[in-house]
Each structure stands twice: as structure tokens, then as C-alpha cells.
Amino acid sequence: MSPPLKNICLTFFALHLCAPLPALTRQELNRREQSLKIAIREVAKAADSKQKLALNSAFAAQLEQVLREDSAFFYAFDSIPHLYRVASPDGLARLITWNVPTDGGQKYFGFALVRSSDTSARAALHVLRDRRPATRLAESKTLTADEWFGALYIKLVEKRNARTGKPTYTLIGISPGSNGVSNRKVVDVLSVSDSGGCSFGAPIFVKKGKVTHRMIFEYSAEAVMELRYHEESGQIIFSSLVPMYAQLRGRYETYIPNDAYNALRFENSRWIFYENVDPPSSVAVRRWGRRNR
């Protein structure tokens, strides 16, 4: 006896849902990129915080829909203003971040895309939710995508664990505070699990005997701090920060750079702090300064 037509239709519908969707063509991705450009410019032009956040929610939903397509992982999206994009050299991790200025300070948004292997066509997409805890507390925590220390990532440095051979993705980001009197920069770590999960922070930063999960630099909003990865030497070089006056120690909104530079050097799968290195304007860093374990 033939199965009822209704059952045949339901079976076909279920198989259709399970079948892989065709990858977006480059032409379609270009079209969606143009739409995203318009959407984020509307966010920037909005008159008040409520309108900005409402328009940003629509933009974020539109971007998320595109990023869930397999073909979007390697698409640059480089014509969309206000987005910060970094990717790992091994092609397994990518982050897109942006911020929205509001009356209550900067709000940070982002997505992390990770692939389990270079043969995997599908990337796991993680929505990053800005839940910045107190700065000092954040230095000692591993954070999930749902409790992300919001930042705009300007650099991803890929290193290999000496023992396991697995990659360590170190992130350099900027994260201005919401109080308007201080700025922040951060050196963080993106960890990726074999199942495609991700987290931020790892106990691999060693400074003067103290181990932290990330390094957060807070300083006066009137100051300019240098923090960058020096490709030739493999170091992260940054300005040494000191309070304007000794009695202000611990009030980080009063910290400013002095004439010295410090560095992080990747040794035995950890970032080790060094004091008083040559300034970043040098062709190659030759003097490591004093090592602080």
C-alpha cells in the first residue's frame, strides 16, 4: 500500500531542511556587504543613544545572518566602515568587533568565528556580549563569549604551544573606559576547543612572579600609550605607565607614559614581562632589559 501523500510531503520537507544550503556567491556577498555599509552608517548618524542601539541591533542581526554562511568566513568585508577585523594566519579563527558610543559610554559588539580544522567547511559562530567586569578582577578570569571583556581588536598574534603544538591566539585591543577620564588597552587570549567552542583569557602572562589571564592597561584619557606587536623581534612592546604623582598610585585615570618601554616575549608557551627594552622606533630590539618572572 502506498504511503499517504501527506507523509511523502512531510518527509521531503524534512530532507530539504537537513540538506546543506548552497554557499553564497561572491556577487551575493558583495550585495549584502553594500547593505551592511548602509546599515552601519545609519547607526553612526542616529541622533540619540536609544536610536543608535536600536539601529545597531538591526545591523548586528543582519551581519550575523551573513556570517552564518560558510562562504562568509574568508570574505573580507573590508569596505564596511567602523568594523575591526583580525584573522589568524592558520585560517582557523577570525574576529569582527565594533563599538557604539552612547550617553552611558562605549558599548562593544562582536563575533568570533572558529573552525575546528583547515579542512572544515563550516565555522562555529559566537556572538560576543560585552560584560566587562571590574578591570582588576578581569585580569584573573577566563571569560566566555557571553561575558566578554569588550574591545576593538587591532591585531591577532599566532604562536604555537611548545608542548602540544596547538595555536595560541593573542589579541591586542583598545577598550576605552565608560567614565570619559581614562582609556584602556588590553592583551588577551582567544582559546578554541576541538568542538568549536571559544573562550577568552588564559593564565599565560607572567609579570614579577604574578600570573594573570590577560593584561589590561588603564591610563589617562589625555595620554597616548603605545601598544603593538613588533614583527621582527616577536615581542609585544608597550609604554611604561606611571602615575602623574607618587601619591596617586592606584588611581589609573592619572597614569601616563614615561620615557621607558616594556615588552612581552613568548617563551615556553607563556608571555614573559621584560622591563626597559629598546623603544619601538629601533630597527630591531637588541636589549631585553630585566626579566620579571
Key terms for this structure?
single chain, 293 residues, alpha+beta, seven-stranded mixed β-sheet, six-stranded antiparallel β-sheet, 4 helices, globular
Helix/strand layout:
Blueprint: H1 5-18, H2 26-45, H3 49-67, E1 84-87, E2 93-102, E3 105-114, E4 124-129, H4 135-138, E5 143-144, E6 152-160, E7 167-174, E8 182-192, E9 198-200, E10 205-207, E11 210-212, E12 215-220, E13 227-230, E14 235-243, E15 255-267, E16 270-275, E17 290-292
Parallel strand pairs: 10-16
Antiparallel strand pairs: 1-2, 2-3, 3-4, 5-9, 6-7, 7-8, 8-9, 8-12, 10-11, 13-14, 14-15, 15-16, 16-17
Helix pairs in contact: 2-3
Structural class: alpha+beta
Percent of residues in β-strands? 35-45%
Strand runs, count: 17
Series of secondary-structure elements, N-terminal to C-terminal: HHHEEEEHEEEEEEEEEEEEE
Number of helices: 4
Question: Number of folding domains?
Answer: 2
Radius of gyration: 22 Å
Low-pLDDT residue spans: 4-21, 282-289
CA-based shape: globular
What would you note in describing this structure?
The protein has two domains: 24-82; 83-292, no CATH class. It is globular, with a radius of gyration of 22 Å. It has helices spanning 5-18, 26-45, 49-67, 135-138; strands at residues 84-87, 93-102, 105-114, 124-129, 143-144, 152-160, 167-174, 182-192, 198-200, 205-207, 210-212, 215-220, 227-230, 235-243, 255-267, 270-275, 290-292. The strands form three sheets. Strands 10, 11, 13, 14, 15, 16 and 17 form a seven-stranded mixed β-sheet that branches. Strands 5, 6, 7, 8, 9 and 12 form a six-stranded antiparallel β-sheet that branches. It has a four-stranded antiparallel β-sheet with strand order 1-2-3-4, covered by helices on one side. It contains four helices and 17 strands. The termini are far apart. The longest helix has 20 residues, at 26-45. It is of the alpha+beta class and 293 residues long.
